[in-house]
Amino acid sequence: MKNRSDLFGRVLEALAAADPEHKIELTCVLRADWLAGRLRLDLAAAGPEPIAAPGRPPRPQLVAPRELVQRRLTTLQGRAAMIHAIAHIEFNAINLALDAVYRFRGLPAWYYGDWLRVAEEEGRHFRMLRDRLRALGYDYGDFPAHNGLWEMAEQTAHDYLVRMALVPRVLEARGLDVTPGMLERLRAVGDLETVGLLEIILEEEVGHVAIGSRWFKYACAQRGLDPEPTFRELLSRYMRGRLRGPFNTDARLAAGFSAEELAALEQLEA
């Protein structure tokens, strides 16, 4: 029988779960057990297994980003496709948060608590969006999707400083930038129910990116690095040509970005 107090073993079980609802349920129980003190950080635990694809359902079909079709929000199918794309990001974000717990060892207990909280909230976001999809006559898996978020997890599996810089603060933070435009377009076509969901998600995603900022800065302090030039160097190394503005300055400032880091993003785009 598995040791149910072993944090890393339990997180690996949730990561491996393929069915979204089962993954979310395991994640919710994990966080409840963490908050109740039923999980322990085993400093002598074996190191993490090499990073591999997390558990996920056979659909959606994963394709290259350039193969995804842009659909008009004036159609029901177009709105469903947009909601599906966001739901897919949230599903990936559950796995990313769980992997941040599992992969990086020897950090303070509140690091693991932060990312278990993020994993649980991303699961709630996924459920909200899936319910909305179903109300429109669709479901998760009905449209193709891409695997860019997890590919970046693979590229950053060697170092939690790099992971914190590039996954929550760059790729996931894109949601802060693009959601206001989505809200405007959805209001224009009268889809106020989806607007309400995305407003909730946007507010909570600011907090998730702020957690990434907190641990990026912690990692820099541990190593005697200045966060701003370190972030700029990582952007140049990993993200050149992959980011486009405009950037949501207010949301990013609230999520722990400095003015210098926002300038680095703008210069990367140029």
Architecture overview:
The protein has 270 residues and is mainly α. It has a single domain, classed as Ferritin, CATH 1.20.1260. Helix content is 66%, strand content 0%. It has eleven helices and no strands. The chain has helices spanning 7-16, 20-35, 76-103, 109-135, 148-155, 160-171, 174-188, 192-223, 227-238, 249-254, 259-269. Helix 5 (148-155) packs antiparallel against helix 6 and helix 7 (174-188) runs antiparallel to helix 8 (192-223). The model has no long low-confidence stretch (mean pLDDT 93).
The count of domains is 1
Total number of helices: 11
Q: What is the radius of gyration computed over CA atoms, rounded to a whole number of angstroms? A: 18 Å
- What is the CATH architecture annotation? Up-down Bundle
Distance between the termini: 56 Å
Beta percentage is under 5%
**How many beta-strand segments?**
0
Largest sheet: none
Q: Uncertain spans, ≥5 residues at pLDDT below 50?
A: none
Helix proportion range:
55-70%
Report the structural category.
mainly alpha
The string of secondary-structure elements, in order, is HHHHHHHHHHH
Tell me the CATH topology.
Ferritin
Query: How would you sum up the global shape?
Result: globular
What's the CATH class label? Mainly Alpha
Mean pLDDT comes to 93
